[in-house]
Amino acid sequence: STRLEDLRVKLENEGLVNISYVVVNHQGTQSQRKVHLLKESVSEYITVYQQDEHQDDVWTTLNGNKDDFLIYDRCGRLVYHLGLPYSFLSFQYVEDSIKIAYCESKCGNCSHTEPDIDVVCENITEKADEKLSEIEPEPHGQHSHHHGQHRHRHHH
């Protein structure tokens, strides 16, 4: 969670502002008891959401696991869902996914755009796209004319 704080600051310094970060705490009593530690380890810019014991587990609802990262665009559409090992913050995947969700309209246009985003995003996305291509299937249509239905993935 302190790493998440570091990432938040790093992105903000690169000009990626107005991103909301939410940490979802586990429902168990054990986790609830430690929620203050979680809150202390992140700044007020990162929301810690405590699940209620009696609600449906957020992760079940989202078809995910507790260590996953779900990255939504400005219009609330899910752009990336990263599980382990891609959700380790020591890797670049989360950072790159955020940058792409921020800079590119992966899910089509969204009315909530940032005014001066071009300057910020100029150099960011090429690098990010390169790194993410190893875990992301290729866009539809590439190479599909060679083999009909079979789509190939390139491994780097």
UniProtKB/TrEMBL annotation:
Keywords: Glycoprotein, Secreted, Selenocysteine, Signal. The keyword Zinc does not apply. Its main location: secreted. It comes from the Eukaryota. GO terms for molecular function: selenium binding. It holds the Pfam family SelP_N. Transmembrane segments: none annotated. Residues 2-156 form the Selenoprotein P N-terminal domain. One of its GO terms (cellular component) is extracellular region. Residues 135-156 are annotated as: Disordered. Residues 142-156 have a biased composition (Basic residues). It is found in: Secreted. GO terms for biological process: selenium compound metabolic process. The keyword NAD does not apply. This is SEPP1 protein. It comes from Heliornis fulica.
